[in-house]
Specification:
The protein is built from 7 helices and 4 strands; from the N terminus they run αααααββαβαβ. Strands 1-2 form a two-stranded antiparallel sheet. The protein has a two-stranded antiparallel sheet with strand order 3-4. It is globular. The chain has 173 residues and is mainly α. A hairpin with a 5-residue loop joins strand 1 and strand 2. It has a domain of 103 residues. The chain starts with a helix and ends with a strand.
Length: 173
């Protein structure tokens, strides 16, 4: 690298003007100088969480979680215990979800041995968190790709250049 280029880079990168200070903003900016007090909730405007918490959506999510079975999370709750738990606690969980204050539990870490001798680290969420994740996924999936088959695992037909009337291209593993 030439000396001239190196000097130019030093001048550009380390100018003395305004050093150790935050950049000054222009007065004609679009953002206000004071922070807003309320929490930003773009989902509230579209009522996504209301859809997530609807009875039919949660019932479908519950059936999927129950069918998938799976191990208990960090709280030790088994899939078979979820129904009784929800009967008692659903009103407060729903309120937390709608207010954006629901605190997901940490995942339980498990190491699964690999055939080659290593281990694969696996995170197991609680059964309740799996239910909520499933309910959210169902709502988002309906919005993102309403023409995509629930049995497909692949790319929508539009991405592959097929006609707009087709259902999507499944990728079978």
């Amino acid at each position: 690298m030439s000396d001239k280029r190196q000097k130019n880079q030093l001048v550009l990168a380390f100018t003395e003007e305004g050093r150790s200070e935050a950049p000054k903003t222009s007065q004609g900016g679009t953002e206000s100088l004071t922070a807003k007090c309320e929490t930003e909730r773009p989902a509230r405007q579209e009522q996504l969480m209301e859809e997530v918490c609807e009875r039919d959506n949660c019932w479908q999510a519950y059936k999927r979680v129950k069918a998938n079975r799976g191990s208990p999370g960090i709280d030790g709750m088994k899939v078979g215990e979820l129904s009784d738990y929800l009967k008692q606690h659903w009103p407060s969980i729903r309120e937390q979800l709608l207010c954006g204050t629901y605190p997901p539990q940490p995942v339980r870490r498990v190491e699964i041995p690999k055939p080659d001798g290593g281990v694969r680290k696996l995170g197991i969420p609680t059964v309740l968190d799996r239910l909520i994740q499933q309910a959210v996924m169902q709502v988002l999936q309906r919005r993102w790709d309403p023409t995509f088959s629930e049995h497909s695992q692949g790319v929508p037909a539009e991405t592959l250049g097929a006609s707009s009337g087709s259902q999507g291209a499944a990728v079978h593993c």
